Amino acid sequence: MKIAQISPLYESVPPRLYGGTERVVAHLSDALVAAGHEVTLFASADARTSACLAPVRDQAIRLDPTPLKSNVAAHLSMMDEVRRRAGEFDVLHFHVDLLHFPFFEDCAERTLTTLHGRLDHKDLPELYRRWPRYPLVSISDHQRRPLPHAHWLGTVHHGLPPDLYPFVAEPSGGYLAFLGRISPEKRLDRAIEIARRAGYPLKIAAKVDKADLDYFHETIEPLLGAPGIEFVGEIGDAQKAEFLGQAAALLFPIDWPEPFGLVMIEAMACGTPVIGWNCGSVPEVLDEGLSGRIVDSIDAAVAAVADLRDFDRARIRAVFERRYSAAAMAQDYVQLYTRLAAHRGRLKRA
Predict the structure, then answer these.
(1) Domain 2-161+325-349 belongs to what topology?
(2) Cβ contacts of residue 350 below 8 Å, gap of 6+?
(3) Any keyword Cytoplasm (predicted)?
(4) Fewer CB within a 10 Å sphere, N or C end of the chain?
């Protein structure tokens, strides 16, 4: 099957540091190539991929030292290039939200759109009613709740290459980990309180976006001077393996409708249990009592930390391999690509 993967241009594919969508696109593209498909990746020129790269920008937007007022120009240029080459592919798989909707209406039945973000924003229902023909994929069943009547073709959970994060049977770090982005909805303040009350050190590997600088300086920075709290900063895949693998647990105390939560399966790949808030996709991704604990309060989270010795890290890794490998993700997408092709066949015969 000839497949085009169309990635956002904000980060490299995969990202050098923080980044979710582009990381998933990278793993999916490589897994599809390994399964024997012809894959063309539309992305910035700094992508690292086994697919055929169609570079549409010299570098990822976040890595570009040239100040940008808007990212629209780069993405519109990519849409034009994908449009020009659309006839080469059996499937056009978009990962750019709904940016492409006005441009590919005449071939919507050959497209698949994976939505990677939250869907409870005010204007989205009307937009998805405006363009109802595009087949959509959610990354969790919970993600699609605000748009129950959209054209959902399926749900595909994210996956990772099994060798990206090695299994650690006996971690030596003796600390709790927080990995992600420092923002109000990620609730690092909760993680700090949990670690303090549980008597564990907390290591924080996190990105601070410009939009969250005030929150960081006013709310989080004053908490970083507490004993046992270590702010590592933003890290990439090369550092994640040790950071997550040597942790006693990952804290995921979110306060928003998380569409998936890639960091949870990154921790699981290392055999590290996750203590996650009962919010968004968390109950869908974690197996309560097996790969982690799902909690509703700081008291419950502290109690979960006390029970960490009850987790079998080998079983956590086994859950990851069964449910969240890149090969499993690619297989699920191929099933959806095949359904699209079968539907087109029925339309032609009608």
Answers:
(1) Rossmann fold (3.40.50)
(2) none
(3) no
(4) C
